[in-house]
């Protein structure tokens, strides 16, 4: 991940941030995992959202948490039961990793999830994105969290000439440079940029005509 000294803040970043946050306050969806800062709940949502759409995850998320209300309950569950609770969501590897993670955290850390992205990354099934997301969404750490939605928005807004693949490092650097300096606004910013990628600047179509950040976006400014 980026070192502070190597980060260059794009000129349009302040306006981009301002517009994005204003839009999110009015249009951001009220999702269950946005109402909590409980690290375990945030973690479960992030594992579920890794390859599954929001609308589908919502129901599973509530049922899963009813069955395993905290990390201890999950750690002590038999693997077959966890797998069964995941049935229908697919990609069972995620469930197996989440279960392993819960056991490890209960065994080695007394059930307390770490708040540092670097430490989070040492846990089963946690890559750079999930580590950033949990650090930001549960602990309000000032860190970037770049998933495919965020990568697409950053690329279109600030690096329209970068290829869609193989530019991760650059996109993380830019995301790290534009994320607000304090934890609470960073939480909102990370949620907001993800939301923009999910609702407006989507993989299928960039709806520049109705996009709130258009004046601060390199791609949007070129669209008539
Ligand atoms: S203006 Fe267009 S390309 Fe830029 S962020 Fe908005 S939808 Fe995406």
Describe the overall structure.
By secondary structure, this protein is mainly alpha-helical. It has 2 domains: about 1-30 and about 145-224, Endonuclease Iii, domain 2; about 40-140, Endonuclease III, domain 1 (Orthogonal Bundle), CATH 1.10.340. Helix content is about 60%, strand content about 0%. It is built from 12 helices and no strands. Bound molecules: iron/sulfur cluster (SF4). The site of iron/sulfur cluster (SF4) has 14 residues, from helix 9 and helix 12.
Q: Which key features would you list for this structure?
A:
single chain; Endonuclease III, domain 1; 12 helices; 224 residues; Endonuclease Iii, domain 2; elongated; mainly alpha; binds iron/sulfur cluster; 2 domains
């Amino acid at each position: 991940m980026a070192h502070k000294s190597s980060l260059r803040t794009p000129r349009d970043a302040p306006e981009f941030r301002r517009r994005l946050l204003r839009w999110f306050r009015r249009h951001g969806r009220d999702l269950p995992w946005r109402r909590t800062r409980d690290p375990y709940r945030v973690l479960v949502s992030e594992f579920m959202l890794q390859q599954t759409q929001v609308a589908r995850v919502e129901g599973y998320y509530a049922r899963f948490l009813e069955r395993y209300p905290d990390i201890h309950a999950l750690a002590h569950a038999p693997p077959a039961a966890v797998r069964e609770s995941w049935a229908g969501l697919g990609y069972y590897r995620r469930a197996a990793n989440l279960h392993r993670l819960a056991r490890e955290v209960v065994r080695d850390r007394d059930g307390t999830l770490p708040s540092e992205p670097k430490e989070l990354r040492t846990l089963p099934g946690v890559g750079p994105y999930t580590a950033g997301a949990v650090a930001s969404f549960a602990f309000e750490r000032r860190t970037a969290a770049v998933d495919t939605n965020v990568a697409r928005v950053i690329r279109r807004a600030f690096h329209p000439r970068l290829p869609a693949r193989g530019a991760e490092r650059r996109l993380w650097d830019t995301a790290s440079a534009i994320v607000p300096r304090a934890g609470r606004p960073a939480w909102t910013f990370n949620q907001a940029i993800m939301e923009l990628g999910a609702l407006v600047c989507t993989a299928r179509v960039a709806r520049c005509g109705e996009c709130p950040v258009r004046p601060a976006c390199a791609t949007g400014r070129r669209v008539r």
